[in-house]
Amino acid sequence: MVAAWLAIARRDVTLALRRGADAILVLAFFVFASVLFPLAIGPYPAILRQIGPGVIWAMALLAALLSLDRLFQSDYENGTLDLLALTPMPVELVVLAKAASHWLTTGLPVTVIAPLIGLMFEVDGKGLAGLTAALGIGTPILSLVGSVGAALTLGARRGGVLLALLVLPLFVPALIFGAAAAEAASFGLSIVPALSVLAGLLLVSLALAPWAAAAALRQALD
Amino acid sequence: MVAAWLAIARRDVTLALRRGADAILVLAFFVFASVLFPLAIGPYPAILRQIGPGVIWAMALLAALLSLDRLFQSDYENGTLDLLALTPMPVELVVLAKAASHWLTTGLPVTVIAPLIGLMFEVDGKGLAGLTAALGIGTPILSLVGSVGAALTLGARRGGVLLALLVLPLFVPALIFGAAAAEAASFGLSIVPALSVLAGLLLVSLALAPWAAAAALRQALD
Amino acid sequence: MSQLAVSDLGCRRGGRLVFSGLRFSLEPGEALVLRGPNGSGKSTLLRCLAGLLPPASGKIAWQGNAVADDPDAHGRRLGYVGHQDGVSHDLSAAENLRFWAALDGGGWPPSDALAAFGLAEIADRPARELSQGQRRRLALARLLLTPASLWLVDEPMAGLDEAAADAFCALASRHMEAGGCLVASAHGELAIAAAQLSLADYAVADGSDAPW
Amino acid sequence: MSQLAVSDLGCRRGGRLVFSGLRFSLEPGEALVLRGPNGSGKSTLLRCLAGLLPPASGKIAWQGNAVADDPDAHGRRLGYVGHQDGVSHDLSAAENLRFWAALDGGGWPPSDALAAFGLAEIADRPARELSQGQRRRLALARLLLTPASLWLVDEPMAGLDEAAADAFCALASRHMEAGGCLVASAHGELAIAAAQLSLADYAVADGSDAPW
Amino acid sequence: MSASMSAFHRLANPTRFLRLADALLPWSAGLTVALLALGLYLGLVAAPPDYLQGDTVRIMYVHVPAAWMALFVYTTIAAASAVALVWRHALADVIAQAASPLGAGFTVVALATGSLWGKPMWGTWWVWDARLTSVLILLFLYLGHMALAHAFDDRARGARAAAILALVGFVNVPIIKFSVDWWSTLHQPASVSRLDAPAIDPLMLWPLLCMALAFMGYFVSVLLVRVKAELLEARLRTVRYRDAGAR
Amino acid sequence: MTRKRRRLVALGVGLTLLAAGAALVLNALRDTLVFFYSPTELTAAAPPNRPVRIGGLVEEGSLARDAGQATVRFRVTDLTTAMPVEFTGVLPDLFAEGQGVVVQGMLGAGGVFVASEVLAKHDETYMPAEVAEALKKSGRWRGTDE
Ligand code: HEM
Ligand SMILES: Nc1ncnc2c1ncn2[C@@H]1O[C@H](COP(=O)(O)OP(=O)(O)OP(=O)(O)O)[C@@H](O)[C@H]1O
Ligand SMILES: Nc1ncnc2c1ncn2[C@@H]1O[C@H](COP(=O)(O)OP(=O)(O)OP(=O)(O)O)[C@@H](O)[C@H]1O
Ligand SMILES: [Mg+2]
Ligand SMILES: [Mg+2]
Question: Which ipTM value was assigned to this complex?
Answer without folding.
Answer: 0.79
